[in-house]
Amino acid sequence: MKTLIVHAHPEPDSLNGSLKDLAVATLEKAGHEVRVSDLYAMGWKAVVDASDYGPHAASPLKVARDSGRAFDAGTLTPDVLAEQAKLLWADTIVFQFPLWWYTMPAILKGWVDRVFTYRFAYGVGEHSDTQYGERFGEGTLAGRRALLSVTVGGPESHYGPRGINGPIDDLLFPIHHGILYYPGIEVLPPFVLYGADRLTAADYPDVAAAWEQRLLALESTEPIAFRRQNSGDYEIPSLHLKPGLEPAGRTGFALHVHG
């Protein structure tokens, strides 16, 4: 297995840093190839602008169109091209980050914004009466799997079905479904470490053991059963889920998961 770890935390000696290092050691010991994109250590540029697209940047800038033109011409910046190459190399992508303000850190979102360009991660496939492009289960990154490893400051009860912060599956849905599944990546259930701000050194061995267990099961873990866009579950072109396919009473994001 070839695994890319995308790590987003500014402190190398943080809990996130330790989980990243443990992932590298565990996977390499198991015989897997591992590459790491440590975004803070790399000094990753987090904002999209015209400099990303060189001669293919129009005025006014049109990010989707111009990023696709630069991708097709092979003139994206070297840092973006390198990350796209890592994604194409990988079988599995592990994202290691803290949940900040209910989402990923800005530097990681900037990695997505710059790396997932038009024609690379989206904007592919035919549009017809039966298909609305290759996305949500299809696309250029199909055949790969991803796992979010997320540290959360609050206790698990705050992120339950009646928790004040909302269910963790709902908070992660935009990443799971909208960023990863959109270009075809199968998404594994997340590894969520609650109460991270209150963990002590004495707690870490149990955390490490649980993380190692998840890592060693990457290849056998069943992905979240998101509905494929072009499988017949959705009306096209409205992309509304066809009536009666959901279990009784199910609403919201969970409509887009089988079972």
What structural class do you assign from the helix and strand content?
alpha/beta
Distance between the termini: 29 Å
Q: pLDDT below 50 for ≥5 consecutive residues: which ranges?
A: none
How much beta, percentage-wise? 5-15%
Sheet with the most strands? 6 strands, parallel
Treating each run of at least 4 consecutive H or I residues as one helix, how many helices? 7
The H-and-E topology, N to C, reads as: EHEHHHEHEHEEH
Molecular shape = globular
Rg, nearest Å = 19 Å
Got a strand count?
6
Quick overview:
This protein is an alpha/beta fold and 259 residues long. It is built from seven helices and six strands.
Can you give a write-up of this model?
The protein is an alpha/beta fold. Helices cover 31% and strands 12% of the residues. The protein has helices at 15-29, 39-42, 63-73, 78-89, 106-115, 168-181, 204-216, and strands at 2-7, 33-38, 92-98, 145-151, 186-187, 191-193. Strands 1, 2, 3, 4, 5 and 6 form a six-stranded parallel beta sheet that branches. The protein starts with a strand and ends in a 43-residue tail after the last helix.
